[in-house]
Specification:
Blueprint (H helix, E strand, L loop, with lengths): L6 H32 L6 H22 L8 H21 L7 H28 L5
Helix pairs in contact: 1-2, 1-4, 2-3, 3-4
């Protein structure tokens, strides 16, 4: 962490380290909401949660397995956590929930989940390294 960053930036980083999983979970839930809307279904919250649950379980497993709370804003953590969430979520979805895992669904899920899990970490990286300091 650069020595010149301000107290507000440090506070934001501390909050991200404590609450990063909320951002990752929101990515999963947003995927379910947008997917249902795109296919012309209403955003019934019961269905959104049902679609999200396998991926949220996989996210939890990934966080614990990787001890992701140690460095949650790291890009590699975001990538690996995204892959664990995607693969684990698809396995749980197919084997436990008996829901479909069509190739297009897997590809769109991969783009959304992995892409956004990396994207917010890039924003955090840019924010901390290139934000002007206040004097």
């Amino acid at each position: 962490m650069p020595a010149a960053i301000g107290e507000q930036t440090i506070h934001i980083l501390v909050c991200m380290k404590k609450w990063f999983w909320v951002l990752d979970a929101a990515i999963i839930v947003s995927f379910a909401v947008v997917g249902r809307d795109t296919h012309g279904f209403n955003s019934d919250w019961g269905e959104v949660i049902r679609i999200s649950i396998p991926f949220l379980i996989a996210l939890g497993v990934g966080i614990v397995a990787m001890r992701a709370w140690r460095n949650p804003t790291n890009l590699l953590v975001g990538l690996v956590l995204g892959v664990i969430t995607l693969v684990g979520g698809m396995l749980i979805r197919g084997l436990v929930f008996d829901d479909g895992t069509a190739t297009t669904f897997i590809l769109v899920s991969a783009g959304w989940i992995i892409g956004l899990m990396i994207a917010w970490r890039i924003v955090a990286l840019v924010w901390t390294h290139f934000r002007p300091t206040t004097s």
